[in-house]
Structure formats: structure tokens, C-alpha cells
Amino acid sequence: MSKNRGSNQRHGYFRCSDCRQGWESSHVYVKNNGQFPEQVQFGQECGNCIKECKPYRLEKLRCSMCHQQRCVCEDKRHNEPNKGHRSDLCLRCKSGRPCVQN
Known about the structure:
The protein is mostly beta strands. It has one domain (7-97). Helices cover 4% and strands 23% of the residues. It has 1 helix and 5 strands; from the N terminus they run βββββα. It has one helix at 91-94; strands at 9-15, 22-29, 44-45, 52-53, 57-60. The strands form 2 sheets. A 3-stranded antiparallel beta sheet has the order 2-1-5, with no helix packed on it. Strands 3-4 form a two-stranded antiparallel ribbon. The longest helix has 4 residues, at 91-94. InterPro entries: Zar1, ZAR1/RTP1-5-like_Znf-3CxxC. It is found in: Cytoplasm. This is 3CxxC-type domain-containing protein. It comes from Patella caerulea. Keywords: Cytoplasm, Developmental protein, Differentiation, Metal-binding, Oogenesis, RNA-binding, Zinc, Zinc-finger.
């Protein structure tokens, strides 16, 4: 896992309660790392109807090479590394704390 990714980052599964669109994101951040239930700091907006949503399921990030939550692989992502981050729908990015550094 990349050295610049905090242990409070998770992979989240989302579904909009209004239009039922579903998506996943590896840019979900929790407040109480390791305590159950983990509290999501920032939601995301649905790309279809712009409703603010929180994930219904969280997972610790997994390496895309070895599929382990804890690994020694350098700079690997939970899922597709070349998939872009929708900062226009991310409430963390909109708050002035960008998830992805350009």
C-alpha cells in the first residue's frame, strides 16, 4: 500500500437511495480507525442525481497485486489504478482537502 495513504482510508460501496445508482470508491475516510462502527468523515454525491450518499459497506484497502489488506507491495491500489477520481462528486475534495494530489 502506498506510503502516503493513511490507515483511515477505506474502499466503500455506495448506492443512492433516490435513483438506486451504485458505485465504488477507494477514497472513503473514517474518523475512528479500528473502532466499530467506523464513522465516515465525508460522503460522495451521486453522479446521476447529485444526492449526498454515505457508503453502505466499507473494506480496508487491498493491494491489486496480492489482494491482501496488509502487504509489502509498493504503491498498489485496491482496484483499478488508472481509474480517475471524481473530485467533482467527492465531498472531501469539495471541502478543500483533495484526495488525489496532482
